[in-house]
Amino acid sequence: MEILVCVKRVPDTAENEFELNSEGNDLDRDDLVYSVNEWDNYAVEEAIQIVDNLGGSITVVTVGDDEAEEVLRREMAMGANNGVLLSDDAFEGSDGRGIAAILKAEVEKGNYDLILTGAQADEGAGQVGGMLAAMLDYPYASLVNKIEPADGKIKVGREIEGGNQEMNEIELPCVLSIQTGINEPRYVGIRGIRKVASVEIPVKGAGDLGVDAGSVGQAGAKTKRVDYFVPDLGDGAEMLEGSTDEIIEKLIEKLKAKGGL
Question: Which of 161, 180, 211, 229 is most buried, by CB atoms within 10 Å?
């Protein structure tokens, strides 16, 4: 099975203290530490497990600048076979639709049975996977937490409201957005990183992909971020004191007063 996994280089929430830029419409990114998007790690691990069972190969792809190459090498050290960097000044400032259009052009250059993305990335919109599927006219499932490959099809489990599990059978090729918890991503050791350090990673721009530069980037963006702000703090939590029975009684009274019961 030929699998393409879309990954993204994002600010590491464990290593950074975030501040807004002077315009107030983005993070100040000058000194941030970056890593691969957490959801994408699960997608790559799932691809590795599928290929281990069925055979095939895995390509990881990202849209970004030269520094985004590091996340491709990290995922290749994890077990992906190939990496592709989609990089062009024209791609800068692309919204979700623009990123999906760039990825679509790369998908059409290959012959992939399955395209995986993380369920969401740092901006939290969770939209690129669905947009990519729509542009390709491929079946799509989001929040996937179980995959069972079958002959020419694939069974997927989805996390839905109320903690329920939904199972679907989807024909290949398709696009799936992977939820965290579907597996346990493997540890990437220094030996694996050294092994792929000198592997050549092709870089493709708008011309290589056949993408109209005016349809992506800031020029083609239909959505623009205009503001970031920190929500005002409320009054805080109210702590209930007393024995267990007293706390339960007080909680019930408050739920009744607020219309919860």
Answer: 211
